[in-house]
Structures are given as C-alpha cells and as structure tokens.
Amino acid sequence: MPIRAILTDIEGTTSAVSFVFDVLFPYAREHLPAFVRAHAGEAEVAAQLEAVRAESGETDADVERVIGILLGWIAEDRKATPLKALQGMVWEQGYRTGQLKGHVYPDAVAVLRRWKSGGYDLYVYSSGSIQAQRLIFGCSEAGDLSPLFSGYFDTTSGPKREAASYARIAEAIGRPAGEILFLSDVVQELDAARAAGMCTCGLAREGGELAGHPAVASFAAIEPAAF
Questions:
Q1: What domain range includes position 221?
Q2: Which of 7, 15, 29, 67 has the greatest count of CB atoms below 10 A from its CB?
Q3: Which residues of 122-138 are buried (b: 16+ CB within 10 A; e: fewer)?
Q4: Which of 21, 7, 24, 23 is nearest to 203 (CA)?
Q5: Average pLDDT in the chain
Q6: pTM across the whole model
Q7: Number of structural domains found in the chain
Q8: pLDDT 10s digits, 61-71
Q9: How far is CA 54 from CA 14, 57, 158, in A?
C-alpha cells in the first residue's frame, strides 16, 4: 500500500526541542499572567479558564488562582489542553509582533516542500495546540510554510502515545492508516502509530536508535516510496 500522506511531529522532528523549552515556554511563562488578566472576560479565554478549573478540580478558583495553576502546569510541562490553548494565544501575540519566529530545521523545510510538490498530503500532530502549530509554521524563520499542510492535529484527537489517537487521525484524513507515514522522535509515539496501522520513521537527530522503527538523522534520508 503506497504512502499517500505524511503525518509529522514537531518537537525534535521538524523543530528543535530547545526552541520550545528555551524560547516558547519562557515567553508564555512571562506573558501569560498579564494576558489572562487582560482577556479573562473574553469568551474564548473564559472558556479555557473554565476548563482549567474543571481539570484541576478547583471549580471556584478566581483568576489569580487559575494563573497560579497554569504556571504550575508550565513548570511541569503538563500536556493540558486548556494550557496549550492559552499558550497558543500568548504566542500568537508574540509572532504577530515579530518577537517570535518559529524554528524549523532547514532539512525539514526543503523536504516538506519537495514532498508537497510531489503530491503527498502533509499533516501535523503535536501536543501543542493547533493554533500553536499554525504559528510555528506560518511565522517560521523560513517564511510562511502553512500552504504545505493539509491539516493539523493536537491532543483533542487523543494522547500521542495511544493507538486510538492515530486511528482517529487516519479517519479524519480519510485514508487507510497503511497509506500514512508518521514521523517522530519518541519511540512510544511511533509504537502507537504502528499499532494503529501506520508506517513509521523515527528522527534521531543526535544519532542513536528508536527501537523497532527505522531511524534517520535528517528528513533528507527519508524516502516515503520505500515504506
């Protein structure tokens, strides 16, 4: 069954993990409190604040307590959907003002462009919110890469280490899982995608192996037709 679509992770795959941890997270941590205070009354933000209260079990938390919860979640790198949504809103401000530029490895940029022109449909699946994903690629150091992608998926499709999430994504893409190649630097994610029937390829940019999966150091070494 030939590969027709490619689904890629971001952190450690298309983009440096250090960009997220050394640039995006500190930016969100610094700017999120003021952002929440300024926009707490707006429907989109208020809905996420309610989701924080529900997920934390502190249903009566005031805005300052919610901010404290969010900062705690940032510190522990918690994959909480309302946190990711609010971070995305904060990052959007940074990208729009030019304070932030998305990092994408040059090899990923070149190969994604080649795949797109070669007829492959490209998709993203990351623990970061869809909004944050769009910003990384839409406001990247290499320019606007958003035309390359046909869709984005985040934790609203399910956890990245569960096979059911990849089955849902394949259904949303509208292709059999066997026609989709998933790229990641995390072996548990690759395992879950394979369990759902997808083909897999690991990115080991610093060398090494991702047990049970072919692994490469660069997008340039990936040939979808070989899967």
A1: 5-16+103-226
A2: 7
A3: bbbbbbbbbbbbbbbbb
A4: 7
A5: 95
A6: 0.84
A7: 2
A8: 999 999 999 99
A9: 33, 5, 18
Q: Which amino acid, 37?
A: R
Map residue 124 onto helix, strand or coil: strand
Task: Report which residue type is found at 95.
Answer: Y
Q: Is the pLDDT of residue 56 over 90?
A: yes
pLDDT of residue 16: 95
pLDDT digits over 195-219, tens only?
A: 999 999 999 999 888 999 999 999 9
Q: Which of 152, 150, 147 is nearest to 109 (CA)?
A: 147
Q: What percent of the chain has pLDDT over 90?
A: 86
174 burial type by CB count under 10 A (0-12 exposed, 13-18 middle, 19+ buried): exposed
Residue 150: phi, psi to the nearest 5? -95, -10
Backbone angles phi and psi of 141, in degrees to 5: -60, -25
Residue 48: is it exposed, middle or buried by C-beta count within 10 angstroms (0-12/13-18/19+)? buried
Both 202 and 107 in one domain: the answer is yes
Task: Please identify, among 79, 96, 113, the residue that sits at the C-terminal boundary of a domain.
Answer: 96
Residue keyed to tokens 């623990």: 127
